[in-house]
Design goal:
The complex is a heterotrimer.
Chain A (H helix, E strand, L loop, with lengths): L5 H32 L6 H19 L3 H28 L3 H23 L14 E4 L2 E4 H23 L1 H11 L1 H6 L4 H23 L9 H16 L4 H22 L1 H4 L1 H13 L10
Antiparallel strand pairs in A: 1-2
Chain B lengths: L3 E10 L2 E11 L4 E5 L6 H8 L7 E6 L2 E2 L5 H7 L1 E3 L12 H9 L6 H15 L14 H14 L4 E5 L7 H16 L3 E5 L3 H7 L2 E6 L2 E6 L1 H6 L1 H8 L3 H11 L18
Parallel strand pairs in B: 3-8, 3-9, 6-7, 7-8
Antiparallel strand pairs in B: 1-2, 1-4, 4-5, 9-10
Helix pairs in contact in B: 3-4, 3-5, 4-5
Chain C lengths: L2 H15 L1 H4 L3 H26 L8 H18 L3 H25 L4 H21 L9 E2 L14 H23 L2 H11 L1 H6 L4 H27 L1 E2 L1 H4 L2 H14 L6 H20 L5 H15 L16
Classes of the chains: A mainly alpha, B alpha/beta, C mainly alpha.
């Protein structure tokens, strides 16, 4: 294994943390849906791809900066997520775990290939003036869009926390997560809460997409790269745990960054998959989360 | 050499001591009952004997050999079969196929297993339902399937976990002779039961479990007269109150042989 | 297993074998061979997923392992393709058994099993893409040397018959499994694992046997793919596409039935060809249709719709 000067390693760690926050945001939506609906949403990656294309179109057709595109895309994706759960996933799954697995897989196949049919397989990216800007932190250089991503991811997590703890909707969501039968008995519309939760998950993806686009690319399969990472984070952080998702995201960001540095880009991903397998096999309740 | 011996078995779930130092024996060829109020630890004790749970302490001996913690499929091969309180049918399969799963244990060939399944179905009164999907049966029918699956493994000891619960009185009357016939065919039976009437009818020996402990044992008649048992079921001081009321209505038959309120169909 | 059990399979084999007498165009035979390879991979998935109820999202791990083993043995070690094929199938079985041992011993099921199999397949893909031994990102090419003793045939029809023979063999194996103790126990584990254990079923052993057999059949598809196309790279051999294809065909054709995967595979790929001729070649369109079909089949299960599809489900 090669050895690197400490500032290179430090920079890799910091950049890993920055990217990791956005990973955490992607995982946040996934873990929230798991925590409340107790389903694994295989379409999560495809929805991210879709959100990235949406942000790309907003930039290309309307000249909207990706950061500004957050404003229209969040309600749009909330509505999309709400509709998908309410009218597709919910009715099709009929309460069976294996059905949900297949329906969300079907959705991901549909979304991914609709994107392929529309945009073809070319890799696209946006040109924004700040894409290459860097911030200096001592001897280390940090990419500006990643720093923004880091900050916004934490703001979103905070907003989500406030939403879940302080609003009536949030209380209803938590009630359904804890005890769906009891929640239904006291008059909570469980189907509505499920759909709202799914909508929030999709809205998190819209934000993540807008944060990723300035320093990443988009193609029809881009979501796949994130979905296993997001699953890893969710499993690592404890299925359903919101702080676990953020911590897990930061951790995975660093792991990816360091294994990329030491193993090279082609093998770098393997670290994540191995962590994923090991955690699933030996610690399925997660490293940080207590929730089973 | 005793048939089945449970020796000082304890089971702790976190802070809860579900079974505490429980010991009892089951004699070969008997129908032995294990009774007790809700939450007494009967099902946990059953799960330990049938290998689904490992005890925190104590031993289980089967015909002289220790079987503590042996997995259920090996116990089934050794001749210990069980039914579940909440019936566990293979919902997508027909009654015949359900029973055949048990029959396959000792018969590798399909034709033999199916033939055995059909004979067992006859014994428990399911002969006419063989082609129905298990999910389509009534509660009583599913209880019979549960019984038939276990019987098809050709056990020496059959553990019945509340086969009568959820049945109406006429269904209970129908199934009691089936259980007795099973014993008469040479299979020892250990049954958990809430329906007291059936226990009184069927069992030669009864052990009473309350709050995880064995508090009494003996013939059904002895056990129901035991003040500790009465108190466990009906609460502190119940024994003396009952004694007083029994004295007043000494000519009325039945007494505790009737099921305690609310327990019969729990 | 009796003669009557095998009659439908024999009928299918007889009818399917006549295809090259009517269809001689290279592209159509090509399509037929490819469809049969998919059917074979799907038949493998059906053993574990359909009969065993363990939904794998990573059958690419078995497809790719057998494909690479067959190719590498020939290219790097000069092994004759027939033994190489057999070793490939065995290697897939071993990989399946090991993945099964790790996953099932840890009690993974449902979504967790799907996730872990997906991750295993991805690990293989990344490794195959990075390693020199597998040809890396450039892939691996089996040298063109058309001789029957070299498992390369001048006529596509011959290959079609070889592929058909493997599919028919898998049908027979599936039918035999259905009539066997292992099959009954596997279905019992699918329906209710604890109840099965209480009846003396060694649930872990049964699932391991199922995943090994499943992996070997899907592996045979992979080895056949390598032998037919004579080229592999990591995204073909270990790509998600084959995991998805192997799962779609049985789910749509009837999981846990003998003919389900073959029926599903033929329907899906005919549909895909049909749309191509109808609306032209739009990338991804066929998969959009597959995805919609998958959702519809889950939403409206054929077994609940009496009629045509019921013919394909035996009990």
């Amino acid at each position: 294994m090669r050895s690197f000067p400490p500032e290179i390693v430090g920079e890799a760690v910091l950049n890993g943390l920055l990217t990791g926050a956005v990973y955490g945001l992607v995982a946040l939506g996934l873990t929230l849906v798991y925590g409340v609906l107790h389903i694994i949403n295989f379409a999560h990656g495809a929805l991210l791809t879709m959100a990235m294309y949406a942000a790309f179109v907003a930039w290309q057709a309307f000249g909207l900066d990706p950061y500004v595109a957050i404003l229209p895309l969040v309600p749009l994706f909330f509505a999309l997520g709400y509709g998908l759960q309410r009218f597709v996933i919910g009715p099709a799954s009929r309460g069976e775990d294996s059905n949900i697995l297949l329906v969300t897989l079907g959705l991901s196949i549909v979304i991914e290939n609709v994107m392929l049919a529309i945009f073809r397989s070319d890799t696209l990216s946006v040109q924004v003036p700040y894409a290459m800007e860097v911030l200096e932190l001592g001897p280390m250089l940090l990419s500006f869009p990643r720093v923004v991503g880091f900050g916004v991811a934490f703001v979103v997590a905070l907003v989500l926390f406030v939403l879940l703890t302080m609003t009536d909707t949030g209380r209803a969501i938590r009630a359904v997560a804890k005890e769906r039968t009891g929640a239904a008995l006291v008059g909570i519309d469980v189907k509505h809460v499920y759909a709202v939760t799914f909508g929030i998950g999709a809205a998190c993806l819209a934000v993540a997409a807008c944060l990723l686009l300035p320093f990443f690319y988009v193609n029809p399969r881009v979501g796949n790269a994130f979905v296993l990472v997001a699953f890893t984070i969710v499993v690592l952080g404890g299925m359903g745990s919101v702080p676990g998702a953020l911590l897990g995201g930061l951790f995975i960001g660093v792991v990816e960054s360091l294994s990329g540095l030491y193993l090279g880009d082609s093998l770098g991903q393997i670290g994540i998959f191995l962590i994923f397998i090991l955690v699933l096999l030996f610690r399925p309740t997660g490293l940080f989360g207590a929730k089973a | 050499m005793s048939f089945l011996t449970v020796e000082a078995v304890s089971k702790r779930f976190g802070g809860l001591l579900a079974v505490s130092d429980a010991s009892f024996e089951v004699a070969e060829g008997s129908i032995t009952g294990l009774i007790g109020p809700n939450g007494a630890g009967k099902t946990t004790l059953f799960a330990i004997v049938s290998g689904f749970e490992r005890p925190t302490g104590g031993r289980v001996l089967w015909r002289g050999a220790e079987i503590t913690g042996r997995p259920p499929h090996l116990l089934a091969r050794d001749g210990i079969a069980r039914t579940f309180q909440i019936v566990q049918p293979f919902a997508g399969l027909s009654v015949r196929e359900n029973i055949a799963v048990g029959a396959f244990l000792r018969h590798k060939r399909r034709a033999e297993a199916i033939a055995l399944a059909e004979r067992v179905a006859e014994r428990v009164g399911l002969a006419r339902d063989l082609d129905k999907p298990a999910a389509a049966l009534t509660v009583a029918g599913r209880k019979r399937v549960e019984l038939a699956k276990a019987l098809a493994t050709e056990p020496k000891l059959l553990l019945l976990d509340e086969v009568l619960a959820g049945l109406n009185p006429s269904e209970v009357r129908d199934i009691v002779p089936v259980v007795r016939a099973i014993r008469d065919s040479g299979i020892t039976v250990l049954m958990i039961e809430h329906v007291m009437q059936a226990v009184m009818n069927l069992c030669e020996t009864v052990h009473v479990l309350a709050q995880g402990r064995i508090i009494a044992g003996g013939t059904p008649a002895e056990v129901v007269r035991n003040p500790a048992v009465v108190e466990a079921y009906l609460g502190h001081g119940a024994a003396t109150r009952l004694q007083a009321s029994d004295d007043r209505r000494a000519d009325e038959p039945g007494g505790l042989n009737r099921p305690p309120q609310g327990d019969a169909h729990a | 297993m009796t003669g009557r059990d095998l009659l439908p399979i024999a009928a299918f084999a007889a009818v399917a074998a006549t295809l090259p007498l009517f269809v001689t165009a290279g592209t159509w035979l090509n399509f037929a061979v490819f469809t049969l390879i998919i059917c074979l991979a799907a038949q493998g998935w059906n053993i574990l997923g359909g009969y065993g109820g363990q939904y794998s999202f990573g059958h690419a791990a078995f497809f790719g392992t057998a494909a690479y083993a067959t190719a590498i043995l020939q290219v790097r070690y000069g092994v004759n393709p027939y033994p190489a094929f057999a070793v490939g199938v065995a290697a897939a079985g071993v990989v399946g058994w090991v993945i099964g041992l790790l996953s099932f011993r840890s009690g993974l099921r449902g979504s967790y099993f799907a996730l872990v199999t997906l991750a295993f397949a991805e690990v293989f893909r990344v490794l195959a893409n990075a390693s020199e031994w597998t040809g890396g990102a450039a892939g691996i090419l089996i040298r063109l040397d058309v001789r029957p003793e070299n498992f390369q045939f001048a006529s596509r029809a011959t290959f079609y018959w070889v592929a058909l023979a493997l599919v028919v063999a898998a049908l027979v194996v599936t039918r035999a499994l259905e009539r066997s103790r292992l099959g009954a126990q596997l279905v019992a584990v699918r329906e209710n694992e604890n109840a099965a254990r209480a009846l003396g079923v060694d649930a872990l052993g049964v699932k391991l046997a199922a995943i090994a057999l499943s992996a070997m059949i899907t592996g045979a598809a992979g080895a056949l793919y390598a032998q037919y196309f004579l080229y592999l790279d990591a995204n073909i051999a270990y790509g998600t596409w084959i995991s998805v294809e192997a799962l779609l065909a049985p789910i749509i054709g009837g999981a846990g039935t003998v003919f389900g995967p073959v029926f599903g595979g033929i329907v899906l790929h005919s549909l895909s060809e049909f749309t191509k001729t109808l609306v032209g070649r739009i990338p991804g369109l066929d998969l959009v249709i597959f995805g919609v079909l998958l959702i519809l089949v889950v939403r409206f299960p054929p077994r609940e719709i009496p009629g045509l599809l019921k013919l394909w489900r035996r009990r």
